[in-house]
Here is the input.
Amino acid sequence: MNKDPFEEYIKESEPAKRDKGYAWHTAIGLQAVDGLKTSEYLVHTAVRNIEGEISFEEANALLQIYYEENPTRDASDRTEEADKVSARIAALLSERAFSFTPNEYLSIHRKLFTGIYSHAGRIRDYNITKKEWVLNGATVLYGSATELRATLDYDFSEEKKFSYRNLSMDEIIHHLAFFVSRLWQIHIFAEGNTRTTAVFFIKYLRTLGFDVTNDIFAENAWYFRNSLVCANYNDLKNGIHETIEYLELFLRNLLLNENHPLHNRTLHISGTFKETEKPDIEIKKPDIETLKLDIEKSFQTKTASHILKLREAFPGQTIFGRSDVMKVVDIKASRASDLLRAMVEYGVIESVSGHGKGKYQFRQH
Here is the structure.
């Protein structure tokens, strides 16, 4: 699907369709924070909802029937999750009801992930770590399992006491970035934290008078997550300090309609991807040695070897899928799916629309 099916609704449509178009576009875009892609069936269902043919309840019911009739055989294929959570996010973003409480935060998670995660709406009871591409494989220090509810309650109470009166817009943006970064750092759930935080934050911003009906979240969800990571990571011996500067840029685009470039490569702690100059249009091929070095830094040896072999097999903008990966590096289907997901999450490859489900190409750095 080459043409964005939601663009016309967001930019030119009547208010009711515009709001639904924004909700669906954002909901689908947010799946990128976990490297997930939705199906064309979901997009078709979303358009029917925007046009008023079906309600959100009917959209969710249609998805349930669709996946009962077309069960996913590959355990690593999370399209069903992406579709169902997208529909639920769109419904929540279309509701105006909201209360700024810890229970509302927990309720959003439960509504999004019931039937998908066994722990939907429940606070995790164990500590977690997550390897982050933007940190070269390191992890943020998330909230301790023994203190999660107390920490959540504290952050909410502090925000409730805070007054935005007489603040400049720069000060408001700074404080909002600080608040959402701390809320996310708690990581109160075992999975689904970023999507839950994004939905809660959007609804909170509306209570503060912000419209939030553009495509910034939809188009830059992965940047949003990486900026949250950067806001909560320190490695002082190597000169790395937590910073909310990237979140502030994101929020300035979201809330003030500014146009700051939001490139994930500028967030990477290695500095390898932080070139800001425009590419030389005379250069037709990427620097293979630099690309090789970047991959070897970001992945374990065996995985890096697989990726470099794939890069050689599928040069330029060659399109490939899981079966191609299985043949080139001689691995099973489940391992190929894991490898593809990792490459998407780390920004090595990108999904290609209009070429069928599960088709990719290497990013042109």
Remarks:
- Residues 274-286 have pLDDT under 50 and may be disordered.
- The two ends are 23 Å apart (CA to CA).
- Residues 169-186 form the longest helix (18 residues).
- The first strand starts at residue 349 and ends at 351.
